[in-house]
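Lab manual, section 2.4: Encoding a predicted structure.

Procedure: take the sequence of the chain (433 residues), apply the prediction step described in section 2.3, and record the output as structure tokens. A sample record is shown.
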Amino acid sequence: MFTKLSSFDPDFEANLQAILRWDASEDAAIETQVKAIIQAVRTEGDSAVRRFTASFDHLDTTQVQNLIITQDELKAAFDSLDQETRAALETAASRIKTFHQKQWQHNQGFEFQDEYGSTLGQLVRPLERVGIYVPGGKAAYPSSVLMNAIPARVAGVGEIIMVVPTPHGVKNTSVLAAAFLAEVDTVFTIGGAQAVAALAYGTASIPRVDKIVGPGNAYVAAAKRQVFGQVGIDMIAGPSEILVLADGSVPAHWIAMDLFAQAEHDEMAQSILIATDESYLDAVLHAIELALPQQPRAKIIEQSLRNRGAMICVRDMDEACMVANLIAPEHLEIATQDAAKWVTKIQHAGAVFVGAYSSEALGDYCAGPNHVLPTSGTARFSSPLGVYDFQKRMSLMQISENGAQHLGKLARTLGQLEGLPAHAQSAYLRVMS
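Recorded output:
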């Protein structure tokens, strides 16, 4: 079921890269179709959005009540939930908000004065309007609503627009309830590439946004890729992935279920276990074989593990951390004794879960940190979604008269050096005055 590797093998790294490889090449047919949809929305506006929504989601949005989900309907959805579900969503939202408020507090602007009395600094301003894409249809991800909307609200975004497809007019109550909790301003019942295009360019009914965030299928990903530059985007995400580092101290069936939790996403999700003891790998494999038949999504899990799952035996935890940094996983569990001691050796991961009780599933829902994470090795240079993704920064310079005398001479020299005489003269006029 799993590919087994050992760091002792001379071709280990080549075999590891073969396991990690994911074909992220663009599907030409999808790209072409998405380009046509975007162009239609850009030129025709609402009529194109309504046409595609009727074709793909079988929903007539010519009536405004079918296009927009009102705040009263969001509140009614929240009120209709049973007490346990409502409390779970409220607690998760509270923890997510608390965590992202910490980011906001530590991400403010700054000012200082240099030796000439000039004021230099950085201004931080929230984006004015953002769009959140939420999958619809068979998928129902209220957690994604919370993870995308709450940091935007904490950042001070002026208006949050949410789009969620509602095939045949079916609306998911938990998603609407989460939108109510997260204080989303407006919800539109559209999805797919046409929703991304509408958010990017604006229509008579759907306002143009500054940035689009949130997960979606291949058509949504292609649309986000094509409109990037017209608007900002969060990232182009690949399949979900988990890497577990283990020394054999955590019960094998706990680790088996952690691997299942990623594998059940889809057949291309990746679950990797690295252990310092081959007998522990065997124990986890045995636990997997026992538990798999009882899993409701057993077929997806099994295919995922066969496609991209791996078990790797290494010499020690130092080597385990080295391999983890090569992989740069979306989720990294350190399931060892004294787990915190190994965190300093981790350079690349989207999120790190430290210790036996830190299951990745807690991070998906209610721990507090964001679950929108870089995938496919992009944790080498990317970060989780956060408050900083909904802010922009402006440099601030208030040059004093004394500063202009000193800096003007430097700027004239550098302007002349670069063959830009107007630059040089502009700076030096302040010196001459």
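Check your result against the sample. The chain has a mean pLDDT of 95.
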